[in-house]
């Protein structure tokens, strides 16, 4: 009997591993959530915007996507989100990203472990060197375990955190990324999946997609934890 604690509520978890399991060298790990918490972190299947993945009452394009269509004359990405950004997921982001509880990466790791399609390059939205120094990790990279990620983008220094900015500032602020010149050749004619934690206005992912497209990427989609 192996005793663990639920990563979210800290209740004890008991797993009875059979002899067959122990000698099979299975790489399948038991979930680190209790039954009650697992229900709260189960991805939802609900009507959503076909372009950005926003959960809503209809399957029509949302106002943000119409804004980007008008502004850029083309939609560079198609995004899908696992959760609506509310309730338990908001608290999860606060505990994991803002308070730096790195253990909580394991809750979402199963969702991201098999994300990449065949011949697709996984590119996390980067964070600044200052953020890495303060927090100690990139919250997106933490969800991928040992899976190979390609840091095709680099973050420029920023004046203040995105969470402290209003909608207007998020949409109209200066460019925040540049292409990683060392990996620019690897982007040519490649399919890319951008990964971020939260889709808010869409500016972060559209900017990233535009840069990767300018570097020669063939097809770009994105996946976020929440919208």
TrEMBL record:
Pfam family, one: Pribosyltran
Record bears the keyword Transferase: yes
Keyword annotations: Glycosyltransferase, Transferase
Top-level taxon of origin: Bacteria
Keyword presence, Magnesium: no
InterPro entries named among the record's database cross-references: ComF/GntX_DNA_util-trans, PRTase-like, PRTase_dom
A GO molecular-function annotation: glycosyltransferase activity
Residue ranges occupied by any Phosphoribosyltransferase domain in the UniProt entry: 182-226
UniProt xrefs under PANTHER family: DNA UTILIZATION PROTEIN YHGH
Family: Belongs to the ComF/GntX family.
Designated name of the protein: Putative amidophosphoribosyltransferase
Source species: Fructilactobacillus florum 8D
